[in-house]
Design a protein that fits this description.
The chain has 133 residues and is of the alpha+beta class. Helix content is 31%, strand content 38%. It contains four helices and ten strands. The chain has a four-stranded mixed beta sheet, with no helix packed on it.
């Protein structure tokens, strides 16, 4: 009986501390990939007039934005200025982690905060279509 009670306490503690996986591990920000922008290229991303930080991961560049909603941003690249939209999509991995690690509590928290959302790519400089003959 003591082992069962100890086990239930561990499960309860784990459920409370690991609940809402996306909120705990990822937070409220998501990175949108800047398609066509390579490492070292000069690019500026503006959201509501404010410059958003751009980060490099490997050979690609990303901009971090709040994951709770879609965004229209202005991208300045290669002397051009474009208005682009990124939309939110459900990050399915977070849903599965919530389901197995924290159950309904984690699902409710991540759904309410929107932290399990990911953002779609921004097509800044799309690659030219391959021609076939």
């Amino acid at each position: 009986m003591k082992k069962f009670v100890a086990f239930m306490l561990v499960v309860a503690f784990g459920s409370l501390t690991l609940s809402s996986c996306a909120t705990v591990f990822k937070g409220g920000q998501s990175a949108a990939r800047l398609v066509g922008v390579k490492k070292g290229d000069q690019v500026e991303v503006l959201k509501d007039g404010a410059v958003m930080p751009v980060e490099t991961r490997g050979e690609e560049q990303f901009v971090k934005l709040p994951a709770q909603s879609s965004h229209v941003v202005t991208v300045k690249y290669k002397g051009q200025e474009k208005k682009l939209q990124t939309t939110q999509v459900l990050g399915g991995g977070w849903l599965i982690l919530d389901l197995f690690l924290s159950g309904l509590v984690g699902i409710i928290v991540d759904a309410a905060t929107g932290n399990w959302n990911e953002l779609t790519d921004l097509l800044v400089d799309p690659p030219a279509a391959a021609t076939t003959k």
